[in-house]
Amino acid sequence: MKIIGITGGVGSGKSQVLHFLKEKYKARIVKLDEVAKQLQQYKGECYDEIVTVFGKEILQEDLELNRVKLADIVFSDGDKLKILNAIVHPKVKNWILEDILKEKDKGTALYVMESALLFEESYDKLCDEVWYIYAEESVRIKRLKETRGYSKARILKIMENQNTEETFCEKCNYKIDNSGLFENTEKQIGERL
Q1: In whole angstroms, what is the distance from residue 170 CA to residue 164 CA?
Q2: Model-level pTM greater than 0.85?
Q3: How far apart (Å, rounded) are the C-alpha atoms in residues 26 and 77?
């Protein structure tokens, strides 16, 4: 089984690449953010510790985390983001290791994990190679305004907390330019696989 890590900045089009890999190459796709959210749900493995650290004011009426409030807190304070990551990522990593073993047993040929924090949390060490999904900043801003309704100020604040293009290029094995037509992206993926 080949394990590929997919990373890149917010709005670079990672989800579209993952969908293509699943459809065309029958890859097992795991978005680490989704695993993290699952583990942070009420009665999930990370829930109690997050509430203890960040307080009950981050809870909704149904006792689930208010993800918007939590995001506002951690994306405006780098230290708080580090604390949240230290709670969540060790548990996510354990989940991934178990999932990789299950998929190997099933005979899965391509396992793809996606995260903006692939290097910060050492997920790259679980991968055979890591792909950087790149898109020009103006394209990313436009996509995030259209798909998520984010303001430019919010987008720039999120981007500030992510790796620079230089860092991604330095640490990844392969760069896929997803700034233009997706056919071009498909071609680059096909050449790699």
Answers
A1: 10
A2: no
A3: 39
